[in-house]
Amino acid sequence: VDRFLSLQLSISSGLSVEELNKMKFLCQNKITKRRREEVQIGVDLFNILMEQHVITPNKLEFLKELLQHIHRHDLLSLVVQFEQGERHTPDDQPDEREKPFKVICANVGREWKKLMRELDLPDVKLDKVVEAYRYDLEEAVFQALREWQKWKGKDAKVADLIKALRGCHLNLVADRVEE
């Protein structure tokens, strides 16, 4: 799933009708009245803004301004985290640190959220993974570990994974990762 589209969907689902109307009002100089009237949900508004290149994955200032003006700092923080995630991932290819991921994915089970919290993964990132992989436990664990790895960047260490596993009393999994 495209991270930028996922961001838009998260923002859209968090908007009330009143907030969406405020955002449409603030777009008067960007979108014609007719197009604004067609907007029923946030995704509709974002599609129009993307068509006009007002917002793109690398051009989010206008979106941030809109969210500031409607006082939705929680949604604004999603945009900021998206931007930071983009900066911390020069390439999205798996690397050596993902080898223990397979062991963890296969053995952690339902305790995976506890592990992610032990690793201090922000709730916003955890919620995003939960929503995207609701019906695939192993993939949810894998993607959450990748989110943690992206978030930590070069500071993501296998030793931290082992420590967190032990902190969650998942010693058998920690032993397998050490092997």
Automatic annotation (TrEMBL):
<dbReference type="InterPro" id="IPR016729">
    <property type="entry name" value="FADD"/>
</dbReference>
<dbReference type="Pfam" id="PF00531">
    <property type="entry name" value="Death"/>
</dbReference>
<dbReference type="Pfam" id="PF01335">
    <property type="entry name" value="DED"/>
</dbReference>
<dbReference type="GO" id="GO:0089720">
    <property type="term" value="F:caspase binding"/>
</dbReference>
<feature type="domain" description="Death">
    <location>
        <begin position="97"/>
        <end position="179"/>
    </location>
</feature>
<dbReference type="GO" id="GO:0097191">
    <property type="term" value="P:extrinsic apoptotic signaling pathway"/>
</dbReference>
<dbReference type="InterPro" id="IPR011029">
    <property type="entry name" value="DEATH-like_dom_sf"/>
</dbReference>
<protein>
    <submittedName>
        <fullName>FADD protein</fullName>
    </submittedName>
</protein>
<dbReference type="GO" id="GO:0005123">
    <property type="term" value="F:death receptor binding"/>
</dbReference>
<dbReference type="InterPro" id="IPR000488">
    <property type="entry name" value="Death_dom"/>
</dbReference>
<dbReference type="GO" id="GO:0042981">
    <property type="term" value="P:regulation of apoptotic process"/>
</dbReference>
<feature type="domain" description="DED">
    <location>
        <begin position="3"/>
        <end position="81"/>
    </location>
</feature>
<dbReference type="GO" id="GO:0031265">
    <property type="term" value="C:CD95 death-inducing signaling complex"/>
</dbReference>
<dbReference type="InterPro" id="IPR001875">
    <property type="entry name" value="DED_dom"/>
</dbReference>
<dbReference type="GO" id="GO:0045089">
    <property type="term" value="P:positive regulation of innate immune response"/>
</dbReference>
